Amino acid sequence: QVQLVESGGGLVQAGGSLRLSCVVSGRTFSRAVMAWFRQAPGKARELAAGTTWNGAITYYADSVKGRFTISRDNAKNTVYLQMNSLKPEDTAVYYCAHSVRYSDYISIRLSDYDYWGPGTQVTVSS
Predict the structure, then answer these.
(1) Contacts of 111 (CB under 8 A, 6+ apart)
(2) Which residue, 35, 31, 24, is CA-closest to 53?
(3) Comparing C-alpha atoms, which of 99, 115, 120 is closest to residue 38?
(4) Is the distance from CB of 116 to CB of 93 less than 8 angstroms?
(5) For the segment 27-74, what is each residue's pLDDT rounded down to a tens digit?
(6) Per-residue 3-state assignment (H helix, E strand, C coil) for the chain
(7) How far apart are CA 82 and CA 9, in angstroms?
């Protein structure tokens, strides 16, 4: 059984920073693609950032490139999302997701991810 728990969300002013963490239980973390999706009110859930098992391949949505950084610590079963220069449009619930469907490909499809965290709210005020 794999469980994901996010933390680090909160309220921040525009231009500020937050660091999200996702701790994953289970034995598959070290070989899983890990990703951060986000869902703003009234919008579809979208992939913000992803990383392969060893961090060799990363993906960033155009809207977060240059501002967000995804990283992972396989010894701690944890994936991080460092978010800098936050904008009001970054306001969303952020979800950590786990996939073992591919080893070196970061899918943007929600259905390719087999486990999800409950989400953490990020609110950026203008």
Answers:
(1) none
(2) 31
(3) 120
(4) no
(5) 889 899 999 999 999 999 999 999 999 999 999 999 999 999 999 999
(6) CCEEEEECCEEEECCCCEEEEEEEECCCHHHCEEEEEEECCCCCCEEEEEECCCCCCEEECCCCCCCEEEEEECCCCEEEEEECCCCHHHCEEEEEEEECCCCCCCCCCHHHCCEECCCEEEEEEC
(7) 11
